[in-house]
């Protein structure tokens, strides 16, 4: 006797076709902002960020863990390579164990007072090279190791999630923005082909209209 097929959920979005029908096509801006290297505008965001989330995957599953130090704690070796110090912790080393097994990583950078976040995807390796460790000495203590990320894609994420969460609501009003605006980034990456001023002018209203 054959088993009856399991009932399907008519409301499930389980194919790309259904997903695209639900969400629509991505905007030009959402595609133009992605580049395969650290553009100077994105360098500014990395240098201003005191906090990042590192996502990894391995045999034991997925992991996302926080990383933080004074702004600029993630350094650029060049426009295709990031250096992330691994400070002392509880020795679980979930991220490092995953990187040993699977080099794919993703980073999410957050900057206090700035709605946009920065996303970096790439492949990582772990190094104890003395010259790399020496770059991150704090109070006479080098990191345990350095995560070297070969960058594959970089792009900023729009501010809606930060706006919804009011994450930076305690940042004093009028605090100067320390990094380029989204429009300025798009204009710089496209060498002026994108109208950054208009994008920035219309962005607050567009975000408020589409928060939910």
From TrEMBL:
Annotated InterPro entries = Pyridox_Oxase_FMN-dep, Pyridox_Oxase_N, Split_barrel_FMN-bd
Q: Name one Pfam family in it.
A: PNPOx_N
**Domain named Pyridoxamine 5'-phosphate oxidase N-terminal: which ranges?**
39-158
**SUPFAM superfamilies from the UniProt entry:** FMN-binding split barrel
Q: What PANTHER family does the entry give?
A: FAD-BINDING, PUTATIVE (AFU_ORTHOLOGUE AFUA_6G07600)-RELATED (PTHR42815)
Protein name listed in UniProt: Pyridoxamine 5'-phosphate oxidase
Q: What's the source species for this entry?
A: Acidovorax kalamii
């Amino acid at each position: 006797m054959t088993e009856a097929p399991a009932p399907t959920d008519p409301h499930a979005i389980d194919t790309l076709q259904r997903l695209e029908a639900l969400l629509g096509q991505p905007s030009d801006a959402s595609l133009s902002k992605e580049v395969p290297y650290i553009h100077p505008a994105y360098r500014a965001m990395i240098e201003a960020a005191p906090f990042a989330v590192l996502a990894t995957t391995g045999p034991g599953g997925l992991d996302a863990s926080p990383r933080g130090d004074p702004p600029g704690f993630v350094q650029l070796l060049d426009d295709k390579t990031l250096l992330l110090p691994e400070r002392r912790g509880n020795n679980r080393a979930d991220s490092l164990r995953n990187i040993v097994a699977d080099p794919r990583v993703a980073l999410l950078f957050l900057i206090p007072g700035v709605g946009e976040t920065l996303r970096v995807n790439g492949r990582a390796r772990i190094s104890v090279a003395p010259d790399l460790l020496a770059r991150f000495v704090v109070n006479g203590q080098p990191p345990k190791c350095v995560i070297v990320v070969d960058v594959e894609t970089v792009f900023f994420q729009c501010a809606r999630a930060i706006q919804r969460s009011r994450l930076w609501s305690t940042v004093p009003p009028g605090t100067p923005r320390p990094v380029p605006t989204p429009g300025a980034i798009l204009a710089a990456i496209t060498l002026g082909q994108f109208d950054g001023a208009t994008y920035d002018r219309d962005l607050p209203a567009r975000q408020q209209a589409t928060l939910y």
